[in-house]
Records
---
Amino acid sequence: MTLNGTPSTKGVAVTVAIPANAFASPVVISITETTLAPPAGYVDESPVYDIAALPAGTILPQPVPVNIPFQNNINVISQQLSLYASTDGVQYTRVQDSYINAGFLQGSLSKFGYIFAGYPMSAAELATCGAIGVAP
């Protein structure tokens, strides 16, 4: 499953690699680049993506590889840059196996929901921005 052709995915697509026959019955999977703001206190280096399945309530039988491109305009990549995932778009947790690979982040998605590339703001970044949730 791939999303490309958006301003944020030029050159590197968002991909989710779900194995053939992963589900017992037909499932429709979509990837949408949302306009959701990143969670408060994070620097976002990608849009928030919604990776969804129909019928609603479909569960991934096993973690699947996901690639999310990131954009860094200051040419300094934070050591904390990771994928962050959420089932509700409010509470995000770090994808434990996420890592940087040539302009995108890779990791394993264990549940359908929202995902973005970013990192928690430092106290200095929060002070510089003057507002929580606004990228420096």
---
Amino acid sequence: MHSIQRMLKLSGIAIIICVWIGSYQAVAAGLDGSTPILCAFTTAAECDSREGCERTTVEDVDLPQFFKIDLSKNTITGMGPAGTAQKETKIMGTQRMDETIILQGVELRGWTIVVSQKTGKMVLTASGDDEAFVLFGVCLPF
């Protein structure tokens, strides 16, 4: 009796894992840039040549928590409360390499965003006169 219950329990766990992997792959597949991508910053760091880097918040860096990447329009749009569009910036360059999308542009500073199509993880780097910012986050198809 215990072996049947154990087998059923293991089968249930295996089914849950398969469903999770399938949904994860479906999300990653949507990060090919064919549809808009919604991203959220999770952590941020501010750096300068004198003091190095220290952790900060997205609010202190003066960026929206959420933003939409639309490769068909070559734009990135900050998203405010209730999904309202805020400031928009142009993507000046797009490259793809090893299941990553690499975006570049200029908005007060030069910036680069790298999005992993496989995991949805995202990193933004921006630099200017003796300062740099590194922000980490995640992206999903929108």
---
Amino acid sequence: MKAEKLTGVVGVIGCGAMGMGIAQVAAAAGHRVKLFDARAGAADKARESIGGVFKMLVEKRRMSEADYLSAQARLEVTSCLDQFADAILVVEAIIEDLDAKRSLLMELETVVGRDCILASNTSSLSITAIGAKLAAPWRMVGMHFFNPVPVMALVEVVSGAATDRRVAELVYATAAAWGKSPVHAKSTPGFIVNRIARPYYSEALRLLNEQASDPATIDAIMREAGGFRMGPLELMDFIGHDVNYAVTRGVFEGLYYDPRFSPSLVQQELVLAGFLGRKSGRGFFHYGVDAMPPQPHTEAPLPLPECMTVFADIPLAQALAQRLCSTNLIIAPADTVAVDNALFTAGAACIYRSDGRSATQRAHDNGIPNTVLIDLVFDVNKATRLAVTCADQCAPEAFGSAVALLQSAGFAVSRIDDVPGMVVMRTVAMLANEAADTVNQGVCTAEAADLAMQKGANYPCGPLAWAEAIGLDQVVGVLVNLGRAYGEDRYRISPLLLRKVAGAGAFI
């Protein structure tokens, strides 16, 4: 039987952006909320700011005047921890420092009742470690909200080794009652989102390090072909490279230096230089009034070749063919065997979707020098850009024919250097692999992993559902080929992913 939601007084300690957001959500949901901050006047300022948000919601007709007045009345400022004695839940949102959190919660434990749940909004510290010195560690739980709290739906409900299951269920039910999308997680480095998301950043950083393309083009490919809301490089600029680099190092060290999470020298150099992103005025991109956003590389328009063939038995080829507007297009008979799952031919070029091999390696393996690869797209009907690459052996005229074919389908075409796995394909394969390993290690369920990445990171699709849409066997093939190309344990395959392929099973 599911636990009932908590009712009663909610305490919030720490009145920065996260604390204010938590207090706003709790008050709007009907709780009496007590605010405390050790900084003089910070709690009063937070209450005033939250009131301003409520007023704005009234003006936008997203909140009634009566609801605003009652929610504002439920917000109280406290001057000392003793005033939390009647709280049923206290959420701390102070600095990310283990000793500071422990000290606060140990003091708080002497004030609140035995049934009061103590929660930490930590994004990276171990819930087990935070609660280890409490007299009743069973009531310690993580409530990891995402910024901005009122907007972002996800709450990771994190259980430490000592957390009572009913405590986690009560917090889960309460977060759901607050209009959030909660997921259960085990206290491990990065929890769910900050762990599974590492490849989104690290693969982009590796592409830069290998000079596959420039930052603006990589980001455009991830947005316009991959369907992500922000490209990985602009997102790191937005987060702050000091913060993002610290999280990566924390997960890397916390998981005993697993090479899958190795930090990037590219990002380290930015941090050392003080190029932290938007907040410093410079990261991968320049910011400021006079800063001009760089444009992605796009191939110039080319004339269509006289001869083009689409292999109709391949679903992706069919979807692409529907976008083509050409009388020169020949649909191959259904029983035609395409070499190595080719999608099209255009002039002398043979066009494939990336399978993790470089185009040069694939041309060598197939004996087809004019090999051209296209990257993965999330939705071929909505994508506006495609990444392409070609083998070193490919003739310029053949590559041009392939580009012209894709342009005729309405795509902006961005050429990248011939790196294994290209951009979107390698990133999605790695995201799915990490999600599978997170599930395999009992951090969360497959459903929670996908929900967390959609609600907490705004991904267009959960990585496990996306992998199933691609084909789990094909995702494994991409990872195998990446592993062969790099010879690194970074690309080792999750045992659970291999098991699903061998058993013809599914995650979702």
